[in-house]
Design goal:
The complex is a heterodimer of chains A (163) and B (642). Chain A is α+β, with helices and mostly antiparallel strands. Helix content of chain A is 26%, strand content 20%. In chain A, the strands form 4 sheets. In chain A, strands 1-8 form a two-stranded antiparallel ribbon. In chain A, strands 2-3 form a two-stranded antiparallel sheet. The longest helix of chain A is centred in the N-terminal third of the chain and has 11 residues. Chain B has 3 domains: 198 residues, Aldehyde ferredoxin oxidoreductase, N-terminal domain (Aldehyde Ferredoxin Oxidoreductase,  A, domain 1, 4-Layer Sandwich); 175 residues, Aldehyde Ferredoxin Oxidoreductase Protein, subunit A, domain 2; 195 residues, Aldehyde Ferredoxin Oxidoreductase Protein, subunit A, domain 3. Chain B contains 27 helices and 17 strands. Chain B has a 6-stranded mixed beta sheet, with helices on both faces. In chain B, strands 8-7-12-9-10-11 form a 6-stranded mixed beta sheet. In chain B, strands 13-14-15 form a 3-stranded antiparallel beta sheet. In chain B, a hairpin with a 2-residue loop joins strand 16 and strand 17. The longest helix of chain B is centred in the last third of the chain and has 21 residues. The two termini of chain B are 38 Å apart. The chains are: A alpha+beta (163), B alpha+beta (642). At the A-B interface, helix 1 of A face strand 13 and strand 14 of B.
């Protein structure tokens, strides 16, 4: 069963410990800019927007990759094969959710691979804001509900839609 | 030889503002080994680069911007950094610490320290990115408030991830207690370091970095880190952490008023009848909209408020801490919480220390009450206790150094000297620094802390919460079960010299690591063993795995900072308390009648510190034990050692 990350903005304090944990898990260093999860902040509006791969059913990033570097791992989760990626940024342009980015050091694409089912960010969040959910409708609903405070801050109306 | 230790960025910057030259240098091995970072390394740098003649606001003064090995290294709470210089408000050692995200960003940009000297011809700011540093023109930023400054810098570089530490108009105008503001609403407020930057035409620092930090032994470090986090999660601290997360430091208004230690009416008493109006519950219920945390912090004491309608509406801003509620609230007899939010916000935007600013205003209010000042002295303002409009007006005047604000912008000690007469009686300070939100007449050991703190009357160098909040197990474990009862007796001076000595060295390490007082001071979780546990695994400095070495390092830092002050003329007579806190018994409230036994505590403190009782000067043997021979070389010929 494919899984997704949900981030509850009511609980998120913007401390960025998830970024630190992710960078340690993937780069063996403390380097938030190399993290697969990014916490964007607008202090003036008290807005926190976590950016992480949504694990799309029809992944635009994969489709856009000219080299076939974005492939499934044994858990069925897409990840970037570093040795194949040419850093062309097509995937970054294609993803409309900001879920894939270029690593500032090795200039290759990076995205969340859910740490083989045991995400480092989930364990590192002392506020319990990040959790793993199933890709079933309940999980998708949970994910959307969790980020609704940001929509309220931005004045965006969300309609109950299909999930 | 290359700098061998991990956890550090590995480089520091020499910034000569007069010449406009920035030099990148490799970190000094001995700085890390002997002084760890932050406050410790700053004391070494300032000892070497300033003298007894250095005018704090001249180009000769040196500002150190510091981080520590734990800054940004995923140790909770480690999003911190510090600034140090010879202080313009006090004339002695000045350091101020701040949380947020700037400290880690400086390290990710490749630097552990920045040393600034000289004076720029035109306004500049320092920009750091990925191992590179440059001085950029700040003409367009000069005069701007701190939030606008940060927004403009981000806009200039088209990079919203840039973090900043900047001064506001108050710093530019060299208000002697202007601070440095980080990330919109966090402040390195105390001791006037903003004025030192202002005197150098230095608007601040901006950083964005992707270089990252390594650990010497990542696996071992993460394990040590997890062990320390387990300590924090001990059920013993459940209530403290729950309180910090729900209320932040505002809970202290209620807790401290209950023990009769909440400075009220310019420190006249320690009990404020209207404390509920400015306390935790009303803030949490009516104004608080979100919780916040500094970089990688599991405590999360920061909070965001919004005020709709009324005289002082505001969009989301960082809520005031306990000290701000006390300084503009109880201490000015002001129970209008929305006005306190407003003044806290204005201080952040103007770049003012809320403690010194509030305390200077309460000083002015008392002069007005006593008839020492009349409306002729106050630009026509009615400074009756609790007059909110006058208070708000004074904040603006102080930042601009305008009218009555000119004299008040010098802080209570200098203002009292200028006013003359009995004004000095109402100037509540030590070494020129306005007292923070405690009172030794209700808490003996804080009297010793105020007196001995190298930067003046402030709790953050050695406050003991053990007896304040009551932690019997900690008292027994750290000192001895036999001493625990006396230590826990808040109005007993017994063993308090030892307790404050022990805390001062612990905080010296905390301030050098650089981590937060929350989780070290309150709740008192992390102790010397924490450094023994995490520093070697992170840095590879094996000697830091030896508990005795770690203790001595704390002592070394404490002594070097004290020596810095001795060189400037500080002796036992300056390690004193203002007359009101020393000899006017607490007039009302739960601690009525209380007075500190300062001399008794001071004698014991000097004994433990390795200092002479009569003068407070260090003993030569002690300095040598701490490898501070260079201090002996300089102080001994002047007769400043024993």
């Amino acid at each position: 069963m494919k899984e997704i990350l949900t981030i509850d903005l009511e609980l998120c304090t913007g401390c960025r410990n998830c970024e630190l944990a992710c960078s340690v898990a993937h780069t063996q260093s403390f380097n938030p800019k190399r993290s697969r999860i990014q916490i964007l902040k607008d202090e003036v509006r008290n807005l926190i927007v976590p950016m992480v791969c949504l694990q799309c059913e029809k992944p635009l990033c994969q489709e856009a990759c000219p080299n076939g570097a974005i492939v499934e791992n044994e858990h069925g989760i897409l990840f970037v094969k570093e040795e194949i990626c040419i850093g062309c940024m097509n995937c970054v342009t294609a993803c409309i959710y900001g879920g894939i980015a270029i690593d500032p050091q090795n200039k290759k694409a990076v995205k969340c691979d859910l740490c083989n089912g045991d995400p480092a960010c989930v364990k590192a969040c002392d506020y319990g804001a990040i959790s793993v959910a199933s890709i079933k409708p309940e999980g998708l609903h949970q994910r959307r509900k969790a980020v609704s405070p940001a929509f309220q801050t931005l004045g965006i109306q969300i309609e109950e839609g299909q999930e | 030889m290359t700098f061998p230790y991990k956890g550090y960025a590995g480089h520091y910057l020499e910034v000569d503002l007069t010449k406009g030259v920035v030099q990148k240098k490799e970190m000094e091995k001995e700085w890390a080994r002997l002084y760890l970072g932050g406050s410790g390394v700053s004391s070494k740098i300032l000892w070497e680069r300033t003298t007894a003649e250095t005018d704090p606001l001249s180009p000769d003064n040196v500002v150190v911007v510091g981080t520590g090995p734990l800054t940004g290294a995923m140790f909770s709470p480690s999003g911190r950094m510090m600034f140090a210089a010879r202080g313009p408000l006090t004339g002695v050692w000045a350091e101020s610490h701040v949380g947020g995200f700037m400290g880690p960003e400086i390290k990710y940009a490749g630097f552990d320290f920045v040393i600034m000297s000289g004076r720029s011809k035109k306004p500049v700011y320092l920009f750091l990115r990925d191992g590179k540093a440059e001085l950029l023109d700040a003409s367009h930023l000069w005069g701007q408030e701190t939030d606008t400054t940060t927004k403009m810098i981000r806009e200039d570089h088209k990079d919203p991830s840039i973090e900043t530490a900047v001064i506001g108009p108050a710093g530019e105008n060299q208000v002697l207690y202007s601070g440095i503001i980080v990330d919109f609403y966090r402040a390195a407020g105390r001791a006037g370091l903003g004025a030192v930057l202002g005197s150098k035409n230095m608007k601040g620092i901006a950083a964005s970095g992707s270089l990252g930090l390594e650990a010497y032994d990542m696996e071992k470090y993460l394990e040590a880190n997890a062990q320390e986090m387990e300590k924090l999660k001990d059920p013993l601290w459940k209530d403290s952490l729950a309180s910090l997360r729900k209320y932040g430091t505002t809970d202290l208004v209620a807790i401290i008023n209950e023990i009769g230690r909440l400075p009220t009416k310019n420190h006249w008493t320690g009990f404020y009848e209207d404390a509920d109006d400015i306390g935790p519950e009303i803030i949490a219920e009516k104004y608080r909209i979100a919780q916040e945390a500094c970089h990688g912090c599991a405590v999360g004491c920061k909070y965001i408020i919004r005020v709709k309608g009324g005289n002082y509406p505001t969009e989301p801003i960082g809520g005031p801490e306990y000290e701000t509620l006390m300084a503009f609230g109880s201490n000015c007899m002001n129970n209008d919480i929305e006005s306190i939010f407003h003044m806290g916000k204005r201080c952040d935007l103007l770049g003012l220390d809320t403690i010194s600013c509030g305390k200077t205003i309460s000083f002015a209010m008392e002069l007005y009450e006593k008839g020492i000042w009349t409306k002729e002295d106050t630009d026509g303002l009615d400074l009756t206790w609790g007059n909110v409009e006058a208070q708000v007006e004074l904040v603006e005047k102080i930042a601009k150094r305008e009218g009555v604000g000119k004299i008040l912008s010098n802080g209570v000690r200098k203002a009292a000297e200028q006013i003359g007469g009995d004004a000095w009686k109402y100037a509540i300070h030590v070494k020129g620094l306005e007292a923070s939100g405690q009172d030794p007449r209700a808490h003996q050991s804080i009297g010793l802390t105020y007196a001995t703190n190298v930067r003046g009357a402030d709790h953050l160098r050695s406050i003991s919460c053990i007896e304040e909040l009551g932690y019997p197990k900690i008292a027994g474990d750290r000192f001895s079960p036999e001493k625990a009862d006396a230590i826990l007796e808040i109005m007993s001076p017994k063993h308090k010299g030892e307790v404050v000595w022990d805390m001062e060295d612990l905080y010296a390490l905390v301030d050098s690591a650089v981590i937060c007082k929350y989780a070290t001071m309150w709740p008192p979780v992390f102790y010397y063993d924490t450094f023994v546990n995490v520093i070697p695994a992170l840095t590879g400095m094996e000697e830091w795995g030896n508990p005795k070495y770690v203790r001595l390092a704390g002592q070394r830092i404490s002594h070097l900072r004290r020596a810095f002050n001795h060189r400037l003329g500080v002796t036992r007579k300056d390690e004193n308390l203002p007359p009101r806190l020393l000899s006017e018994p607490m007039p009302t409230g739960p601690s009525k009648g209380g007075l500190p036994d300062l001399d008794e505590m001071l004698d014991e403190y000097y004994e433990f510190r390795g200092c002479d009782r009569d003068t407070g000067y260090p003993k030569e043997a002690k300095l040598k034990e701490l490898q501070l021979d260079f201090v002996v070389d300089e102080l001994k010929p002047k007769g400043l050692t024993r």
